[in-house]
Amino acid sequence: MTDALTYLQGLFGFAWPLVWSMAKIVAIVAPLMLGVAYLTYAERKIIGYMQLRIGPNRVGPKGWLQPIADALKLLMKEIVLPTSANKGLFLLAPVLAIGPALAAWAVVPFTPELVLANIDASLLYIMAITSMGVYGIVLAGWASNSKYAFLGAMRASAQIVSYEIAMGFALVGVLMAAQSLNLVEIVKAQQGGVFSWYWLPLFPLFIVYLIAGVAETNRAPFDVVEGESEIVGFHVDYAGMAFAIFFLAEYANMILVATMTSLMFLGGWNPLFDFAPFTWIPGFVWLLAKVCFILFLFLWFRATFPRYRYDQIMRLGWKVFIPVTLVWILVVGAAMQTSYGHLFH
Amino acid sequence: MNFEMLVFYALATILLFAGFRVVTARHPVQAALFLVLAFFTGAGLWLLLEAEFLAITLVLVYIGAVMVLFLFVVMMLNLNIEKMRAGFWGNLPLAAFVGILMAFEMVLVLTVAGRSVVAAPQVHGPGYSNTKELGRLIYTDYVYAFEIAAVVLLVAIVAAIAITLRRRTGTKHQDPAKQVRVKRDDRVRLVSMPAEKDL
């Protein structure tokens, strides 16, 4: 292994860091894309069974090849450019939507060692990068040169910007408890079984983060951007692969929010209990199980709740979630000055 | 030329290009987007300086918040580009004079004796955390300046909210408290209807 690495290093010369980073990026993005594909399959199957249907079962055994067939269909469809759309920005918008959704994964740790870039301020990096996702939406709506798309973009981006604040405050609570911005340190601070994870001392923040994560990714019941009952949506003018990119970005963001929730509130790769049969299972499997659980919640929400009205979405974000997070940050900060501080570590 | 130099020159080229396009782009939306690109590239340059906290905050605050609102405004204004460009040639001499004067002043400030050459910052080891250093400085040596800046921002926030609180008549809005309190009896009236017998 080391020999092969040295050989390759010699082969590429000073471009080696670039090549090596590329290889690592592919190693993260390729499984992620596969995860996105099978998340759509899981969504259709799970919601199908919840609604007493079977879901896709025609392509491949038990429908397992359905996502591949969908991807091929989307690839072969024509990308329609609306007349008098701003062509450059129209095509740039999907790229700006998916770019941040993938770039955020650079600092996500999968085990204490397995992380592309273990930087000190990784939590801040995630917040910064995910806050850029809104450009794809705004530009898609504006460049389509359609009033419906533009109204949809305004709604979606206002929703994302609003819920980002609540999410940011929830993260402030986490970093106060862990006393670090580094995701690896945050997970390490939660060692010691299910009652040491941060979901318990930071319960209000956990709930706010989870729900704000659903709203942030424009998922049901906050999915006014693609609701059939609403006639507006920022991607009404997109077709084929250009639309599929938005779709990929949404699902990649879902997996990202689920992973962040698992890392920050559900102990990441820490086992459920700190004794024998649980510690035999490798950490990565624990993380994967927690991510799958959160993703299941996303799908469950979609099958259960009716869609929110737009003014109710904004009200919930600004008048409920932000005050809740602010109060709990104060509680955590005050408790740390007293003898109860250990409860929040 | 090592890898770091390569990255620096690539970023510097993009930054200069983006900055140039901000002032030359025909459409305001394009100009705003090039400004976003300039901020992002600038953040990359700061990362090269090991100022990771500042770089990420630049992205978070300026790209993630300020420029989004900027784009909103620029997109929703019905801008007439022809009208904006009408006085271009007439104003050019004055603008050029002011611009050159400002550039001259900047050169003067930067070339004051001893300031033109700044020693290269020392390269820190892997254990060094710029974020921690910055936090320590802000909350110890510069705590008053920092708190005053925070208060100024708070006043600005309160003022901005106060401006929006004007009373408008004739607007329709829903009162969620009332909606939540509503009961079945307020909406539905059960009417007892005897079945018809003679059919």
- What value does the average pLDDT of chain B take? 86
Strand content of chain A: under 5%
What gyration radius of chain B follows from the Cα positions, in whole Å? 29 Å
The largest inter-chain interface, given as chain pair and residues per side, is: A-B, 28 and 27 residues
Number of helices of chain B: 9
Inertia-based shape of chain A: globular
Distance between the termini of chain A: 40 Å
Instruction: Please state the structural category of chain A.
Output: mainly alpha
Mean of all residue-level pLDDT scores of chain A: 89
Biggest sheet of chain A, open or closed, and with what strands and sense? none
Largest sheet of chain B: none
Order of helices and strands of chain A: HHHHHHHHHHHHH
Q: How is this structure best described in words?
A:
The complex is a heterodimer of chains A (345) and B (199). Chain A is mainly alpha-helical and 345 residues long. Chain A is 65% helix and 0% strand. In chain A, α2 crosses α3 and α4 runs parallel beside α10. The longest helix of chain A has 35 residues, at 16-50. Chain A is globular, with a radius of gyration of 21 Å. The relative contact order of chain A is 0.12. Chain B has 199 residues and is mainly alpha-helical. In chain B, 69% of the residues lie in helices and 0% in strands. Chain B has helices at residues 3-24, 28-48, 52-76, 81-85, 88-110, 130-139, 143-164, 176-181, 184-187. In chain B, α1 runs antiparallel to α2 and α2 runs antiparallel to α3. The longest helix of chain B is centred in the first third of the chain and has 25 residues, at 52-76. The model of chain B has no long low-confidence stretch (mean pLDDT 86). The A-B interface holds A 14, 17-18, 89, 119-121, 124-125, 127-129, 131-132, 134-135, 138-139, 142, 150, 154, 157, 161, 164, 181, 311-312, 315 and B 1-3, 6, 29-30, 33, 36, 52-53, 56-57, 59-60, 63-65, 68, 71-72, 75, 129-132, 174, 176.
